[in-house]
Amino acid sequence: MACWLYEGMLMFGVVFIAGYLFGTLSQTRNAMDNRHALQAFLFVVFGIYFTWFWAKGQTLAMKTWNIRVVDAQGRPLSQRRALLRYLLSWLWFLPPLALLALFPVSVGETLVILLGWVAVWAVLSRFHPQQQFWHDAWAGTRLVSSQPLSR
């Protein structure tokens, strides 16, 4: 989870640059204009970012925490499998976001619902036979330690 939080901090830079690029290219002057187009653009940018790095084995945050993503046989991911993992990883967020779209609630309640679902999804990994996250199991991927060999 620490790697996940670190990845979130790194993604701030990706969001900033992508948002600036989108705003410049679309000539958006107000943050609420083209909001859904910006969200779709960021979804694609995130997909490119994660698919690219996962196909190489690890993101910068994963390198820092000595974690590598591989397929079920321990081989590097193909672009297709990395993209599938990216799409399935949205299960961390889509159920509560869909629920929140149906029922307008306050910002505090939104945060509680979102963090509550993330906690439930993380706990559900304890029920997997190899205790891996379900999106990894469904994508045919797994996280492994990539500790450098000591001499």
Briefly characterize the structure.
InterPro entries: RDD (IPR010432). 64% of the residues lie in helices and 7% in strands.
Word description of this protein:
- The protein has 151 residues and is mainly α.
- The chain has one domain.
- The protein has helices at residues 2-26, 35-56, 60-64, 79-89, 94-102, 107-124, 134-139, and strands spanning 67-71, 141-145.
- It has a two-stranded antiparallel ribbon with strand order 1-2.
- Helix 1 (2-26) crosses helix 2 (35-56), helix 2 (35-56) crosses helix 4 (79-89) and helix 5 (94-102) packs antiparallel against helix 6.
- The chain is globular.
- The chain starts with a helix and ends in a 6-residue tail after the last strand.
- The mean pLDDT is 90.
- Its main location: membrane.
- Keywords: Membrane, Transmembrane, Transmembrane helix.
- This is RDD family protein.
- The chain crosses the membrane at residues 6-25, 37-55, 97-124.
